[in-house]
From TrEMBL:
EC number of this enzyme: 5.1.3.32
Lineage: Bacteria, Pseudomonadati, Balneolota, Balneolia, Balneolales
Top-rank taxon, per record: Bacteria
Stated name of the protein: L-rhamnose mutarotase
Organism: Gracilimonas mengyeensis
Gene Ontology biological process terms in this record: rhamnose catabolic process
A GO molecular-function annotation: L-rhamnose mutarotase activity
């Protein structure tokens, strides 16, 4: 397993709605994420910049491209597009982050 970190951008004024939607995450989406090999997934918000920071553990055989093609993933992106910066396919704009330190 390995760690993956990335950042996304929340539109201003949508903190409560973003949290609400994730507190009520669809069981079928959570199942798809787990089946794809995502574990220990957390998202943090920097309220000064509206930057979302995500960190997750991924199984060695994680296949993000297959996950991106699932109808439930596309449905979630459509659901979230009004409160986040998104790409033309409604997936969130993500910026990968390089790990420069880790302590167990």
């Amino acid at each position: 397993m390995y760690r993956n970190a990335f950042k996304m951008k929340l539109k201003s004024g949508f903190k409560a709605e973003y949290k609400k939607r994730h507190d009520e995450i669809w069981p079928e989406l959570e199942e798809a994420l787990t089946e794809a090999g995502i574990h220990d997934y957390s998202i943090f918000l920097d309220e000064e910049t509206n930057t979302l920071f995500a960190v997750q553990k991924l199984e060695d055989d994680f296949d993000g491209e297959s996950l991106r093609e699932l109808p439930i993933m596309k449905k979630w992106w459509d659901y979230m597009k009004d409160i986040m910066e998104v790409n033309p396919d409604n997936s969130p704009v993500e910026k990968s982050l390089e790990e420069v330190f880790h302590m167990d």
